[in-house]
Amino acid sequence: MSQPLWQPKELVETLKPLETRGCIPPIQGIGIDSRRVSKNDLFVALPQDFGPEFYPSTAPKSDGHRYVQHAASSGAGAALVTRFTESRLPQIRVKNTLKGLWSLAAKSRSRMTGKVIAVTGSSGKTTLKEFLRTAFDCYSSKGNLNNFLGLPLSLANMPRDTRMSVFELGMNHQNEIAPLARLARPDIAIVLNVLPVHLEQLGSLDAIRREKLSIAEGLNRKGILLLPDDLNDESVFAGQVIRFGESAHATLRLVSKNNQLCAIRLDGKTIPFKIPNPNRHRQLAAAIALACGLILDEDTGKMTDRLQQQDISIEGRGSLTQIRNVTLIDESYNANPKSMQLALQNLLDQSVKGRRYALLGDMLELGTKACEAHSALAEQCHRLSGVWLVGPLVSRLAELLPKKKILGIAKNVDELPVEQVVRRLRPGDCLMVKGSNRIFWQHNYVRRLAEQLEESELLHESN
């Protein structure tokens, strides 16, 4: 049997509880969702009000204390609470359960002797994290657990013998990245990009830049900061800074051939690479992952083999599937002006026998830049066979495109049945779906679209 993640004595010493009730068993994992806890996990009962240190956007919709008994029935070994509940489950009472979770995360990080890589950026964080995880074959946060809840949860669940880990740091308000970075204490911190995302909350691109660069606050003097070669850092970090890009002054040179990234050059070493389903942001993620391998003196040969052999596909972030000979590109998790343009270019670059279509949704939280950002998509959309437009912002493209290019306009996905989209498609066609999270992703629109494609009689007949 594997060593417990948390021994009872260590758990109590770390949490410094006000009071305990019952016999705390060895803990195998930490969970905040009573539906997903496993045998002998510690269930953290989160309150609805986190207090002034944390943003309300991260708070759960209901009080976790209501679910302590449900966690017990799911196999939990104990619960972390601010008040004792009627459940017979052993309970550890603290003043603030979220702070308790952060304490466990900090302790887990302090007992780890391996290396930590932290990633932030306006777009592509999860993709880069997954490429790093695959290349290093290491522990990482799951999905996009990157905020005041997700990062400490990932750290608190980090196995004791972890030699390498990768974490994603996200934000949508000021003063979020720095506390997360100080908690993760990375050896390498990466700012992938700075784009006009969350402008409504932060006000300007410069404010977003400062927020992303605050990841450097988690680095010690021996740490390394990786930045794009076109990003002004204003000397936010006194230690080693490595600039990546294709310019002559980039420390980490990204080498292109036929407009496709194919190799990296760092400290006189050149590493060529190939990955399945290549596009610009996936190739950039592979390049940075290999660069981190060089920096940490890892076996980059094994890393390139892993990246070449595994098709890293992340639902909603550019995953590509073939259904009834129709290519479906799922970019529905989120959108900003830069990622939208890259996604459209990737669609245009697809080698398909049929037509290229885009189902586009609003890009949200752009503030006063919203109209300009959506209008800028017209040039690429002109080159497509047709587009569907969902949302009041992106629908303005209808004024800039020929009528024959507009296949449908809807205020929301409820007004655009998946059947209407599928009826247009034939074998050999390619469809890309992209918009902000609330447009398609939260409605499982692409999954429903895929199911309808499987069932389409027209596609059956064509086959």
Q: What topology does this entry show?
A:
Layout: H1 8-15, E1 19-21, E2 29-31, E3 41-44, H2 68-73, E4 78-81, E5 91-93, H3 97-111, E6 115-120, H4 125-136, E7 139-140, H5 150-156, E8 164-168, H6 177-184, E9 188-191, H7 199-202, H8 205-213, E10 224-228, E11 240-245, E12 252-257, E13 260-266, E14 269-272, H9 280-295, H10 300-309, E15 319-323, E16 326-331, H11 337-349, E17 356-361, H12 370-375, H13 378-382, E18 386-390, E19 406-410, H14 418-422, E20 430-434, H15 445-455, H16 457-462
Parallel strand pairs: 2-3, 3-4, 4-5, 6-8, 6-9, 7-8, 9-10, 10-11, 11-12, 16-20, 17-18, 17-20, 18-19
Antiparallel strand pairs: 1-5, 12-13, 13-14, 15-16
The end-to-end distance, rounded to whole angstroms, is 52 Å
Q: CATH homologous superfamily of the largest domain, by name?
A: Mur-like, catalytic domain
Q: What is the name of the CATH architecture of the largest domain?
A: 3-Layer(aba) Sandwich
Strand order of the largest sheet: 7-8-6-9-10-11-12-13-14
User: Rounded to an integer, what's the Rg over CA atoms?
Assistant: 24 Å
User: CATH first level of the largest domain: which class?
Assistant: Alpha Beta
Number of strands: 20
